[in-house]
Amino acid sequence: LGDPGRPSPVAAPSHVPSPAPAPPPGFVAPPFVAPARQARSAPLALGGTRERDAGPAWRPRQLLVRWRPAAGERSRLAALAACGAQSLRHVARFALDQVALPAEDDLDRAARCLAASPLVAAVGKNYLRYPQGAASPDDPGFGRQWAAPFLGLDRLWPLVSANTEIVIGVIDTGVLRHPDLAVNFWRNEAEATGRLGVDDDGNGKIDDVWGWDFGAEDADPFDGLEHATGVAGLLAAQGDNGMGIAGVLWRARIANLKAADAFGIMDVAAVAAAVDYALAIPGLRIVNCSFGGFGQDTTGVEEAAFQALADAGVLVVCAAGNQAKDIDADLVSGEAADGFYPAGYRLANMVSVAAVDQAGELAAFSNYGSRTVHCATPGDGVVTLGTASQARVTVAGAAYQAVGMEYAGLTDAAGVQGVLVDGGYGYVDELPESARGAVLFVLRGGRGGETMTFRQKAENAEAAGAVALVVANNVDAQTDPADTLDTVGGTLGRPGIAIPVVSVSKAAGESLRAAGMGSEAVVVNTLDPNQVTVQSGTSFAAPFVSGVAAMILAVRPELSALQLKEILLATVRPLPSLAGKVAAGGVVDAWGALASIWPRGDIDGDRHVRLADAILGVQVLSGRRAPLPPLIGDVDGDGRIGAAEVLRALRTAAAKE
């Protein structure tokens, strides 16, 4: 995508994106590349292989404060003010305040001041948690879902491919509205059927129909990054629908819990707030955490949050991290503060997941630890959903090819409609009052050779009330092949723009400006349903475990989180490369896990053992019926229908009479 810090001047190469806004004071840019769309360049993911001392470990100028039971709201705020701190977020369930300080130099002073208060139980830094994706292979076709047969999923899908009775929380960077996930998002019915602008369910969040954004504190968790969409795709992309990929579960309910900020980074306070919200979701049974970071939260709120999930019977699946380190080492040496979390919390409901490659070897980047990391699944070169867009602009019946800008708002297939209005270069003083409710048309670049970023244009258009923004290239790609705005597109630098923003070629722009102004225009900017990307990282190993756990619950919904974990680990497929590296010594075996709980003697795969199974078995044995798919209700372990299965079915059916 080019240098994310450079602007888009007049006649500059079109692959140069708009810069991201200035980061918060004291912020040190973490050493990972921004997520890239497959159509733009080789696919890249958040969070490259990271050494423990790379990138900031905590939020600058912030502390976490946990209160004793005696602390009321007035006394709590007074104690903060006395120490020069201001509350940014309060999570009552965990007696937590995320607080801000005027300067980083005040951190230690404020921590000592707060710790001296009799109302305060603990004070600590707000540690950061990074998505655990690594760089992807260059070949976009690598793997082609090799993980499905590796885990035995392809044999299971005819038997179990849906579980819409439970909710799986995805705490991540915000899952995008991908067509292959559209039917699988959890919906907050109280808000969906309630009144706009009102907190109908009384949870302190207004209009949280589709979850919540705990980074920006708003009701739009969909303005996220590629990372979360790839994670959710592996977990629950709809199968057998002619698009995208097949997730572990083809039908599921995914709660979109965005905890990342505009830079794709999470912190302990946002994670705790997301857990607090998730605990109130009816039917929540699994939470996927494809993130982590070094440094244990000294206030204990992060561990308390995950313990609260344990108390609620929720399984937590965590990425083990991408630093190629033995994360047991710090814990064994007693340096718990240097461990990798949340995977390092040794809670009974938590499963920590390493990554293996297609050969079954521990991925070169994957963390490991025979005490801390429980198992592994594919996470090196796995195929998942991409986030390239399909865009077009239609004016007066004429359709113009367009390219959606990275981080721009998305539409449905029908798009958004409005009168096409000329906005010059997109400066505030150029935008007419008629821009409100209109499709705004602007030129790339700025007046007199000034630089003006795509994001500045988009922010101005959105503030003016435009329903969409069309940016016309000022470079002819035919004469300047180095310019790729017409093929690769531009970037807005970070999420946060709700309206669709697309670019069109110089020739298309000239046509629109000459004849299209004042006409009705339709702008479509959707995700390409069939574009896939190849990703690597323990982030992409974790959702396989979450998905298999949900498959188990589809068959045995009464199982507890502890029983789920026991089944997952007791049925792993041992691999030599994992001996001494992960606690269970192997990779999760979806077929083995489901077979361990499947009714013995079930020949037709309907999860029940009846007389019909015995009749079907006799027909197969006598040659009157063709052999059935692999037998999951095996009795004698030979993997085929035989006398043992027929006898078991007969005896079970007779016992029910």
Give structural notes:
- The protein is α/β, with parallel strands linked by helices and 657 residues long.
- Helix 6 (226-236) links the parallel strand 6 and strand 7.
- Strands 1, 2, 3, 4, 8, 10 and 12 form a seven-stranded antiparallel beta sheet that branches. A seven-stranded parallel beta sheet has the order 6-7-5-9-11-13-14, with helices on both faces. A seven-stranded mixed barrel has the order 16-17-21-20-19-18-22.
- It is built from 16 helices and 25 strands.
- The radius of gyration is 27 Å and the shape is globular.
- Helices cover 23% and strands 22% of the residues.
Number of helices: 16
The largest β sheet comes out as: 7 strands, antiparallel
CATH architecture classification name of the largest domain: 3-Layer(aba) Sandwich
Radius of gyration: 27 Å
Count of all domains: 4
Total E-strand runs: 25
The CATH homologous superfamily of the largest domain is named Peptidase S8/S53 domain
What's the arrangement of secondary structure elements?
Layout: E1 58-67, H1 73-82, E2 86-91, E3 96-100, H2 106-115, E4 120-131, H3 147-151, H4 153-156, E5 162-172, H5 189-192, E6 212-213, H6 226-236, E7 251-258, E8 266-267, H7 268-278, E9 284-289, E10 291-294, H8 301-311, E11 315-319, H9 328-332, E12 340-341, E13 350-356, E14 375-378, E15 380-385, E16 389-395, E17 398-404, E18 416-422, E19 439-443, H10 454-463, E20 468-472, E21 501-504, H11 506-516, E22 520-527, E23 532-536, H12 542-555, H13 561-570, E24 573-574, E25 586-587, H14 590-597, H15 611-621, H16 643-656
Parallel strand pairs: 5-7, 5-9, 6-7, 9-11, 11-13, 13-14, 18-19, 19-20, 20-21
Antiparallel strand pairs: 1-3, 1-4, 2-3, 4-8, 4-10, 10-12, 15-23, 16-17, 16-22, 17-21, 18-22, 24-25
Helix pairs in contact: 6-12, 7-8, 12-14, 15-16
